[in-house]
């Protein structure tokens, strides 16, 4: 239903950004992925296969960390943006002569089949998705029973200083609203996940100049708010923006360094054994029966 969609994300703008976002891994995405990878130490049982969803933007260096953690586990790379698929192949496909190409931990490319992986990794993606429930549902279907999802995204306090600058100037919002971690937890449960664990932390980045700050923001994402500026702004507006950033974001006693806050939300949830409906006559699919008969994998 349309009412279930994020109210401050323009679906057309979101689709355009997904297809045109730079084929690079922003530094902040890599840092968040590094911190999320450390959380895998809580998982006692390694997956038998795992999927990296949109790795080019999510973190190519982080992919290497995951491969080091699970060197013998097959990995499926699902890069959903067409213009980044070549970059994913170039960066992540082992050389044809490499034993890694044919060994137990082989890397393949494409969308995961239903119930085909035990871990799905999606870093810094969900906050720019126009239909997050559909995406979470796709992740749930890709996971096997007792498989688990690891994801991260921006939280609502992200860019709070920048929002204050825009409000002070009387401008439209500089970014769409980011979802609270408790709402993500509710969506996970609605999608059929169990035992969601949500966590958050704040990261403050400093920049030497307004221009460097704006460059970082352009790499991180795009303003998907339906009420964003409807047209291009000129040089005078850009000068006003840079002056406002230099004044309002300056750290005291820090040689003019500018500070910007990012709230990072981490999510972790399992796919449970499906429940059999209780009725006088119940029909259970073959897939559900197989899932019910599987023994559970030890959890955290």
Amino-to-carboxy terminus distance: 35 Å
Gross morphology: globular
Mean pLDDT: 90
How helix-rich are the residues, as a percent range?
25-40%
Order of helices and strands: HHEHHEHHEEHEHHEHHEH
Largest sheet: 7 strands, mixed
Structural class comes to: alpha/beta
Task: Find the count of extended strands (DSSP E, 2+ residues).
Answer: 7
Biggest sheet strand line-up: 3-2-1-4-5-7-6
Strand content: 15-25%
Measured on Cα atoms, how large is the radius of gyration? Answer: 21 Å
Strand-helix topology:
Blueprint: H1 11-20, H2 27-38, E1 50-53, H3 55-58, H4 60-69, E2 75-78, H5 82-92, H6 99-102, E3 107-109, E4 117-123, H7 132-142, E5 143-154, H8 160-169, H9 181-190, E6 194-207, H10 210-220, H11 235-248, E7 258-270, H12 286-293
Parallel strand pairs: 1-2, 1-4, 2-3, 4-5
Antiparallel strand pairs: 5-7, 6-7
Helix pairs in contact: 2-4
Sum this structure up briefly:
By secondary structure, this protein is an alpha/beta fold. It contains twelve helices and seven strands.
Mind explaining what this structure looks like?
The chain contains twelve helices and seven strands. A seven-stranded mixed beta sheet has the order 3-2-1-4-5-7-6, with helices on both faces. Helix 2 (27-38) packs parallel to helix 4 (60-69). The chain is of the alpha/beta class and 300 residues long. It has helices at residues 11-20, 27-38, 55-58, 60-69, 82-92, 99-102, 132-142, 160-169, 181-190, 210-220, 235-248, 286-293, and strands at 50-53, 75-78, 107-109, 117-123, 143-154, 194-207, 258-270.
């Amino acid at each position: 239903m349309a009412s279930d969609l994020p109210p401050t994300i323009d679906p057309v703008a979101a689709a355009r950004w997904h297809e045109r976002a730079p084929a690079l891994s922003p530094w902040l995405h890599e840092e968040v992925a590094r911190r999320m990878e450390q959380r895998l130490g809580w998982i006692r049982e390694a997956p038998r296969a795992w999927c990296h969803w949109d790795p080019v933007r999510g973190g190519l260096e982080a992919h290497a960390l995951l491969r080091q953690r699970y060197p013998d586990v097959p990995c499926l790379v699902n890069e959903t943006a067409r213009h980044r698929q070549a970059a994913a192949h170039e960066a992540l496909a082992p050389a044809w002569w490499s034993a890694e190409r044919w060994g137990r931990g082989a890397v393949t490319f494409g969308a995961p089949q239903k119930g085909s992986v035990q871990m799905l990794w999606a870093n810094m993606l969900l906050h720019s998705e126009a239909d997050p429930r559909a995406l979470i549902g796709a992740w749930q279907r890709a996971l096997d029973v007792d498989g688990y999802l690891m994801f991260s995204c921006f939280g609502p306090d992200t860019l709070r200083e920048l929002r204050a600058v825009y409000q002070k100037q009387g401008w439209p919002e500089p970014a769409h609203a980011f979802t609270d971690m408790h709402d993500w937890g509710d969506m996970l449960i609605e999608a059929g996940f169990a035992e969601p664990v949500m966590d958050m932390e704040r990261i403050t980045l400093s920049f030497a100049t307004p221009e460097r700050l704006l460059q970082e923001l352009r790499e991180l994402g795009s303003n998907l708010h339906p009420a964003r500026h409807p047209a291009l702004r000129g040089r005078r507006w850009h000068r006003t923006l840079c002056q406002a950033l230099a004044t309002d974001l300056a750290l005291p006693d820090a040689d003019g360094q500018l500070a910007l806050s990012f709230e990072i939300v981490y999510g972790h949830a399992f796919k449970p054994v499906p429940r059999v409906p209780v009725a006088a006559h119940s029909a259970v699919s073959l897939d559900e029966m197989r899932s019910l008969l599987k023994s559970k994998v030890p959890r955290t």
